Amino acid sequence: MATKLIIAIVQDKDSNRLSDIFVDNNIRATKLSTTGGFLQSGNTTFMIGIEEERVDDALALIKDASHARDEFMTPPVNMDVSMEGTTAFPVKVQVGGATVFVLPVDKFTHF
Ligand code: 2BA
């Protein structure tokens, strides 16, 4: 039976509920505290080793538990231009519900 690795990046606000959902559905996952490269604020990455047949079910649970939200970020002031009258206004960024990768797994062992 082929194993896949799901890597799912979700917002911190959704992560505890998603952990509970994984436990309830007998999905084994490792939760990592991560940082988004763009917003440079915390998010949560789940690593899930799972049988290929169950990948779609896991993706449906992730989709259901993850919500898109608007965040505001203040862009850095460009120091190349004159500072006169330059104010960095917060910019609205929509952060997605979940960013998900599904990878093949060459070998999966438990010792
Ligand atoms: P962040 O890198 O902090 O990005 C947060 C949100 O900012 C993104 O939401 C997107 O709406 C926006 N954003 C990111 N880069 C941008 C850029 N160069 N210009 C304009 N807006 C930009 P999502 O796309 O939903 O991504 C949420 C989080 O998922 C990301 O947090 C990052 O941690 C991860 N992620 C997204 N795409 C990825 C990828 N291709 N590879 C690895 N991680 C990814």
TrEMBL record:
It comes from the Bacteria. It holds the Pfam family CdAMP_rec. SUPFAM superfamilies: GlnB-like. PANTHER family: CYCLIC DI-AMP RECEPTOR A (PTHR38456). This is Protein from nitrogen regulatory protein P-II (GLNB) family.
